[in-house]
Amino acid sequence: MKPTEKDLEDLIGQIIELTWSYAIWWELANIKNREAYRKAMEAFPNYFRAVFHSMQQGICVIVVQVAVVNAASPAVDGEADKVPTLHVPRSPTAIDSTGMPEQVRLYARWITPRGLTSPWTAAQDVVVA
């Protein structure tokens, strides 16, 4: 599906916001700048920790990776790593169930642009409508 002009404008806007957030985050996180902010960071550590982590989360564009397993077969350890996965931009979201079995087990995890992932969630048994 070709993106619309509005889609491209939204994407450019998000990139600009991420760039601004990254520039501020790096100014605070870069060890070379630490001395310039040391007194303020020592006086207000909780504030700077909150700002640092908030901005870090804001610059990490995260998608959800979903593993869909046929629930007709018994659950097996590590099965989420052995099936094709879907990537969805946010959670919760609708997933196209075309071609899926009547009952599935869903697993989900976060994945960052650098490929870092969280552990898989516990299985969720779902009846496909």
Explain what you see.
This protein is of the alpha+beta class. The protein folds into two domains: 5-59; 63-127, no CATH class. The protein has three helices and four strands, in the order αααββββ. The protein has a four-stranded antiparallel β-sheet, with no helix packed on it. Helix 1 runs antiparallel to helix 3. The chain is elongated and about 60 Å long. The two termini are 25 Å apart. The model has no long low-confidence stretch (mean pLDDT 79).
Q: What are its keywords?
A:
129 residues; alpha+beta; 2 domains; four-stranded antiparallel beta sheet; 3 helices; 4 strands; 39% helix; elongated
Class from secondary-structure proportions: alpha+beta
This entry's quaternary arrangement is single chain
Mean pLDDT: 79
Overall strand count: 4
- Shape descriptor reads elongated
**Low-confidence regions:** none
Detail the topology: elements first, then pairings.
Elements (H helix, E strand, L loop, with lengths): L4 H25 L4 H10 L1 H15 L3 E8 L14 E4 L14 E9 L12 E4 L2
Antiparallel strand pairs: 1-2, 1-3, 3-4
Helix pairs in contact: 1-3, 2-3
Question: In brief, what are we looking at here?
Answer:
The protein is an alpha+beta fold and 129 residues long. Helices cover 39% and strands 19% of the residues. It has three helices and four strands.
